[in-house]
Amino acid sequence: MSDVNRLLFLRFALIAVGLTFIFGIYTLGVVWPSGWVWGQGYSHYLMMIIGVYATLGVFLIIASRNPYAHKSLIWFTVWSSAVHGAIMGVQSLHDTAERGHLVGDAPALILVAVILAVLQQSIGAHWLTPASRGATIRQASTFSVLAGFSS
């Protein structure tokens, strides 16, 4: 796969994850509470987690414009998603009332971590050289304009 395609897939993944973090967590909590909402009834926790993830989602969308410039944010998303998903998975195993999370938010966060890690790793050190970075970004920008994104 070419560098342009890798960059493009990473940009799309950042946008998809960002939009999911902004709009999807609340929606999935309403539609599928057993897999996305912890505890029974109203919880202050849900609104706090939605606030944190929606904020992260906005910054992931911003990072999609130039992933290399935001690699720390992307790696934070990878590692925090992996850790959060793993903790929820263990807690779901111990609390029978929360077993729905084993097929809901816990594996979803692990999937986010894996996808972003694989795509982020594909943006290698050659991006550090101005000539290759500029050429690849110009090629990706050409496609992005056609796809409706701006860099």
Report the uncertain regions: none
Return Rg in Å: 17 Å
H/I helix tally: 6
Could you report the average pLDDT, rounded to the nearest whole number?
86
Tell me the series of helices and strands, N- to C-terminal: HHHHHH
Shape: elongated
Measure the end-to-end span. 22 Å
Briefly note the structural class of the backbone.
mainly alpha
Biggest sheet overview: none
The percent of residues in helical segments reads over 70%
- Would you count the extended β strands for me? 0
Taken together, the total number of domains comes to: 1
Beta-strand residue fraction: under 5%
Topology summary:
Layout: H1 3-31, H2 33-36, H3 44-63, H4 71-94, H5 105-121, H6 130-147
Helix pairs in contact: 1-3, 1-5, 1-6, 3-4, 4-5
Please describe what this structure looks like.
- There is one protein chain.
- With 151 residues, this protein is an all-alpha fold.
- It has one domain.
- It is built from six helices and no strands.
- The protein has helices at residues 3-31, 33-36, 44-63, 71-94, 105-121, 130-147.
- The longest helix is centred in the first third of the chain and has 29 residues, at 3-31.
- The radius of gyration is 17 Å and the shape is elongated.
